[in-house]
Specification:
heterodimer, A: alpha/beta, 6-stranded mixed beta sheet, B: alpha+beta, 4-stranded antiparallel beta sheet, rod-shaped
Chain lengths: 233, 325
């Protein structure tokens, strides 16, 4: 499913998103080796600056490793040609810390975007998106643009967009940051339900009570290194 | 997962996920492309018009001849009859001549009017007879170099019949006019190429501005699995539409200017504007006012603008996208 073999990542600070041509930049991840089996659920923990977001960027293919080998959903992505990556990205759902919604699109269109990019028929899109927006409690807000939504509502739109295409790999960066406890619990139940249906889930968080309530194996990062990769229960 | 056939068509019309309607203005780009289209239409008109003038003048240089016979009523040196009569008969007997016609007094007076005034025919000046000769083009081809030796021989024969007869071929100045027309044609062609280059640059700059303005949206859509073709296609659709509109507007605005220029240039091309059956309806008048080739080329301008918009946007966006992983 996902395999890290001595993976390192270094930014050169000039072209984010592209492997730096000269290994002179700041090395944010070093020697990462671990495996996420298909259908696994993992917490990604670590202090701010430990490299959690960089690790997630590697996983959702926003950057490629500068050293080592990384295999995602059966594809070795370190050296593969660019045109191989888009279909792979469509199998990965991401909930960003800053939501990354398109401000000029309605909640419905934001959630529908992955399906439209994948070329799904509009009839199916209408049904799937409506159902999902209903599930996250935004039935009456489908036509609202992100600016008209509260932080929590925006986050729920972002979550709906991440899962609408039924991804094989779901990544979340602080997904409960703008949610109240009840909504956060509903979100965790959604993640667990998707995980039960076979989706591999990795959630980066600082929310220790949430981790305690939902015990699962942990990947612990510190200063760009993996310091713990084991069960916490 | 396979994509259903034709699914892209199912995307709602006007779905603008990248927000390009604001990023690539529907005013500035069409206005600039319209200006390019206007210039291109003029250049095209100049190119086609100059080509027609060059052909017309070159054909005239090959086939037109003027023969002046002084003392036309005097007896000819050989063969009896008047000098004019002998020269005309010889010309008409020549296989190289298709037509030889002596200008009458009215036509002569018209020719001399700029220099001698309206009463030239009343002045006691001995005027030569002037014969307008049309030569047969060799094998139907237009080549003044082939006709020249025959004209020299003909001139010698005419001078023997009526000494003092001047045979003048229009080749010299017609050829200069022809070279001028060809130069104008080349300039028009060069202008057309420059206009195309500027149009490409304008679309490329507008596309880059759109890329900068929508960088974040592009990165999000790219991150959701959009291919380069998908993103470039969104830009290309927008650029194609705006460039086509601009090209159409430019061509339409240029039309009255072209009609006016064609009207001015018509006598130079030897046109006879009002023939026996002049066009009566407005479409027929318009159709006859411009060369057919120009009428066929003008609708091509919006198509050319659209093609430039599409290709330039595609190339610009795809090159830009290479910076993303």
């Amino acid at each position: 499913m996902v395999r890290f073999e001595a993976v390192g990542l270094r930014y050169n600070g000039t072209t984010p998103g592209r492997p730096p041509s000269t290994p002179t930049g700041n090395e944010v991840l070093r020697g990462l080796s671990f495996e996420l089996p298909a259908g696994a659920f993992r917490w990604l923990l670590g202090p701010s600056g430990a490299g959690k977001t960089s690790l997630l960027r590697l996983l959702y293919l926003a950057v490629r490793p500068t050293s080592g080998h990384l295999t995602i959903l059966g594809t070795e992505v370190t050296t593969v040609r660019r045109n191989i990556l888009p279909p792979l990205r469509r199998r990965i759902g991401v909930v960003f810390q800053d939501f990354r919604l398109l401000p000029h699109l309605s909640a419905f269109d934001n959630v529908a975007l992955p399906l439209r990019i994948a070329g799904r028929p509009e009839g199916q899109i209408r049904a799937d998106v409506s159902e999902l927006l209903n599930w996250v409690g935004l039935t009456g807000r489908v036509d609202a643009r992100p600016a008209a939504l509260s932080g929590g509502e925006q986050q729920r739109v972002a979550i709906a967009r991440a899962v609408v295409a039924r991804p094989s790999l779901l990544l979340a960066d602080e997904p409960t940051g703008n949610l109240d406890e009840q909504q956060a619990e509903r979100l965790m139940h959604l993640f667990k339900e998707l995980n039960r249906l076979g989706t591999t889930v990795l959630v980066a968080t600082h929310n220790e009570p949430m981790v305690a309530r939902h015990p699962a194996p942990v990947l612990q990062l510190d200063h760009g290194r993996l310091v713990k990769a084991e069960a916490n229960w | 997962m396979s994509r259903p056939r034709g699914s892209r068509l199912l995307r709602p019309a006007g779905f603008d996920e990248l927000g390009l309607r604001r990023a690539i203005s529907d005013r500035i780009l069409p206005f600039l492309v319209a200006a390019m289209g206007f210039l291109a239409a003029l250049a095209l008109g100049g190119w086609i018009g100059a080509a027609a003038l060059a052909s017309s003048w070159q054909a005239g240089a090959a086939s037109a001849l003027t023969v002046q016979v002084p003392q036309p009523g005097d007896p000819a040196a050989q063969g009896g009859g008047t000098r004019l009569g002998r020269v005309l008969a010889t010309l008409r007997a020549s296989p190289d001549v298709t037509e030889a016609r002596a200008l009458d007094d009215t036509e002569l007076a018209r020719l001399l009017r700029p220099w001698l005034g309206a009463g030239a025919d009343r002045l006691a000046i001995p005027l030569p007879a002037v014969i307008a000769v049309r030569l047969a083009p060799p094998d139907g081809a237009v080549d003044p170099n082939v006709a020249a030796p025959d004209v020299a021989a003909l001139a010698r024969a005419l001078d023997a019949l009526a000494p003092g007869t001047i045979t003048e071929q229009h080749e010299g100045w017609m050829r200069r006019l022809s070279v001028l027309a060809r130069s104008l044609q080349a300039c028009a062609g060069l202008t057309l190429l420059l206009v195309i280059a500027v149009a490409v640059t304008v679309v490329a700059v507008a596309t880059r501005a759109g890329l900068s303005a929508r960088r974040e949206a592009i990165e999000i859509v790219h991150g959701l699995g959009a291919t380069d073709a998908y993103i470039a296609g969104r830009f290309a659709s927008r650029a194609t539409l705006l460039a086509a509109v601009g090209g159409a507007v430019g061509a339409l605005v240029a039309l009255p200017v072209l009609l006016a220029l064609a009207n001015i240039a018509a006598p130079l091309a030897g046109a006879t504007p009002q023939t026996a059956m002049p066009p009566t309806t407005m479409p027929a008048v318009l159709l006859s006012a411009l060369p057919v080739r120009l009428w066929l080329a003008l609708p091509g301008l919006p198509l050319l603008a659209a093609a430039i918009g599409c290709a330039t946007a595609q190339i610009t966006v795809r090159r830009w996208l290479r910076r993303l992983p």
